[in-house]
Amino acid sequence: METELDRYLERLAKVLGHADRRAGLRDYCRGLMLPIQRKSVEPLAAHIDPEHVAAKHQSLHHFVAKSAWSDAAVLREVRAVVQAELGLEHGAYWIIDDTGLPRQGRHSVGVARQYCGQLGKTENCQVAVSLSLASDAGSLPIQWQLYLPEVWASDPARCAKVGVPETLRFATKTDIALSQVERALADGVPPGVVLADPAYGDSAAFRDRLTELGLCYAVGVRCATAVWTPDTAPEAPPPNTGRGRPRTRVRRDPARPPVSLKELAQRLPAQAWQTVAWREGTNGTLQSRFAAVRVQAAHGDRPRPEQWALIEWPEGDAQPLKYFLSSQPADTPLERLVHVTKMRWRIERDYRELKQEFGLGQYEGRNWRGLHHHATLCIAAYGFLLWQRLRQGDKKKSARPPTPALPKSYRPRGSRPDATTRSGLDRHAQTDAGRTDRSSTATLSVLREG
After folding, report:
1. pLDDT tens across 297-343, in order?
2. pTM, whole model, 2 decimals?
3. What's the structural domain count of the chain?
4. Fewer CB within 10 Å, N side or C side of the chain?
5. Burial code of 166-195, b = ≥16 C-beta within 10 A, e = fewer?
C-alpha cells in the first residue's frame, strides 16, 4: 500500500528530469531516515539493499555525485509541501545563517581553515550559507550553498577538479545570503522578517539591500555599532534651492556625535529595562532584561530612517549581552521585538537535527555537485518529518522506514578479513574536538515540539 512517504518522494522525484533518477531519490532519502550511525553512501547502500551492497552503492553514488538534477527544483518542492502547514499567516521569518562541516585534508571542495561554529573555533572545514523559512510552528532551510573561500575561487584548476561551476566567482557569505534572498523573492516565497546574526547584520550594505527589497529585518550587530538617538540626530540636508546639485549629506554637529550601542545601553535609566520572556525552553521559561530605543544608524552621510535598537542585558551581568537593529514599525511592542528577534533559535535546532539525525556532515565525496545533492536530500528527508509533525502535532509520531538487517557475512569496505560484522558502519565516525554532540538515534527529536 502506498504510504504518505511514498507520495511525498514521488512528488519530489517528478522534478528530477529523468525517471531513472526516482529510485535514487527514494532510496537515498529513506536511508537518511534510518536510525543508523553513519549516513555516507556505503552505509546507506548496505542498509537499503543488504544482499546487493556493491550494486546499490554504485547506483547511489552515481545519483548523488554525478547525476545532473537540480537542487533548487527539489528544494522548491520540499518548501511547497511544508509551507502549507507552517501557518505563515500568523508571522513569517526568513532566517539567514551559515554552518560549518569539519573536514580532514584539503581536497574536498571548499575546505579551508576558517571559523567552524560546530567546533567553536577556526579549524579545517567547509562552510555553507542557508536561508530558512520559519514560523512560530517550525522552520525549514529552503536554500543552501557552499561558501568558496578566496584561496579556492582564485585557483581554477583546483575548482575544476572538484566540479565547481565555471561561472561561479568569489562571493562573500553576505553576498551569497543576499542572492538567496533575491531568489526567494523571485520564487514567490511569502515575505518574512529577515533574521541574522552579527556576521551579516553588521554590514550596512546588507541591511540597506534588505530595505531596498522591501523586507523588514531584525539582525544582530556589534556593541561598537554607532547610532544617533532622537535628541542627537544630525540635521537633514538643506532644501534644494534649484541651483546646483541637490544636497544629500546630513549636517553633523561636532557637539552631538553618535554613540556606540554599548554606550547607549550604559546611559539608559533603570526604568528603561524590562524583563521579557520569549518561550518555554527545555529547563524552563527563557527570559532576560531588554531595552528598546528608536535610533538612526550613523554610517555614511545620507539620512537614514529611524529603527529599533534592541539591547539585551541580563540581570546581574556586568555588561550587555546582545545588540540588535530592527526595522519593524515604530509602534511594535517590546515583547514583539524580543519574540521576533529570538526566532533565530530555530535555525540552530534545524542544523542540530540535520547533522545528528540526517547525516548532513557525513558526505564523504569531494565534489561540488555531490555535496550539494547530499545536503538537498538531507533537507528533503527532514522536510518530510517536519511536515508530518506539523500536520499531526503531538498526537502520534511519523512512521519511519524499517531498518533491514545486514547479512552476517557483510563487512564494510576496507575491513580486515577477520573483522567482525559492524552493523553500525561507523568506521568513519568523527569526533568534534572531544565534544559528544550526537544524541541517541532511537527517536527523532524533530518529532517533538520545540
Report:
1. 987 667 778 999 999 999 999 999 999 999 999 999 999 999 999 99
2. 0.85
3. 2
4. N
5. eeeeebebbbbbbebbeebeeeebebbbbb
Q: Does a structural domain hold residue 208?
A: no
DSSP track, 41-110:
HHHHHHHH-GGGHHHHHHHHHHHHHT----HHHHHHHHHHHHHTTS-GGG--EEEEEEEEEE-SSS-STT
**Integer Cα distance of 46 and 431 in angstroms:** 23
Cell numbers given for 89: 499567516
Share of the chain above pLDDT 90, in %: 72
Q: 171 with 320, same domain? A: no
Residue 212 lies inside a defined structural domain of this protein: no
Measured between alpha carbons, how far is 149 from 129 in angstroms, rounded to an integer?
Answer: 12
Average pLDDT, the chain: 86
Residue 388 phi/psi, 5° resolution? -65, -45
Q: Helix (H, G, I), strand (E, B), or coil: what is residue 201?
A: helix
- 272, 297, 327 — which closes off a domain? 327
Range of the domain at 272: 217-232+257-327
Task: Give pLDDT tens digits for 173-199.
Answer: 999 999 999 999 999 999 999 999 999
